[in-house]
Amino acid sequence: MKPKSKSPKKMKLALKEPSTAVRPRIDPLAAVALGLVSKIPSLGLRRMPQVLDALHEVLEGSDTIARATRTRLQMHLIKISDKLITEPSHKSDDTDLLTTEQAAQLMGHSRPYVAMLIDSNKLKGASVSEGGHRRVPRSTVLAWVKKTNLKTKVVDTDYRTAASKAGMYDITEEQFVKITTKGKRGR
């Protein structure tokens, strides 16, 4: 005899936890269980309650395996979140038009500075709508960043060497102490 499948209405009820408060809460693992049974057709929807119970058992346990599983799951979710944040949601080409805010983030400057660059025609291909909204091609912003980074690239970051070359270490430490403490003794 074939087991009866639950109706969609009854399935929604199965997704909820037993009510501990006045309003029933939705089980956060129900969506995971539903995703698993939809990805593995051999399980079928009728196995969803068992999958949901197994998820709760594995993730809510207090033993070492459950703690390690939770940690691995958290690390995986963080890795996915970081990847989604740093990668654009769509592949962009160089003809994408950016807002002044987006351009400012790419350039490492303020939004008003980008607006000033657009208004003074220093960013080629930029446009201003009738409503005053400025847009600039991504390729123009990237070219500007490349050009300005080459101009402002710091060659010598060793400040001690640069100071020595500038003659800032021409006096000995003994002379320095004598000069700096001379005025303090008379007070």
Quick take:
The protein has 187 residues and is mainly alpha-helical.
Describe how the helices and strands are arranged.
Elements: H1 8-14, H2 28-39, H3 48-60, H4 64-86, E1 97-99, H5 100-107, H6 111-119, E2 127-128, E3 134-137, H7 138-151, H8 159-165, H9 173-185
Antiparallel strand pairs: 1-3, 2-3
Helix pairs in contact: 2-3, 3-4, 5-6
Would you mind describing this structure in some detail?
Helix content is 57%, strand content 5%. It contains 9 helices and 3 strands, in the order H-H-H-H-E-H-H-E-E-H-H-H. Helix 3 packs across helix 4 and helix 5 crosses helix 6 (111-119). It has 2 domains: 9-18 and 25-76, no CATH class; 93-180, Orthogonal Bundle (Multidrug-efflux Transporter Regulator, Chain: A, Domain 2), CATH 1.10.1660.10. Mean pLDDT is 77; it is low at 5-24. A hairpin with a 5-residue loop joins strand 2 and strand 3 (134-137). The chain is flat, with a radius of gyration of 32 Å. The longest helix is centred in the middle third of the chain and has 23 residues, at 64-86.
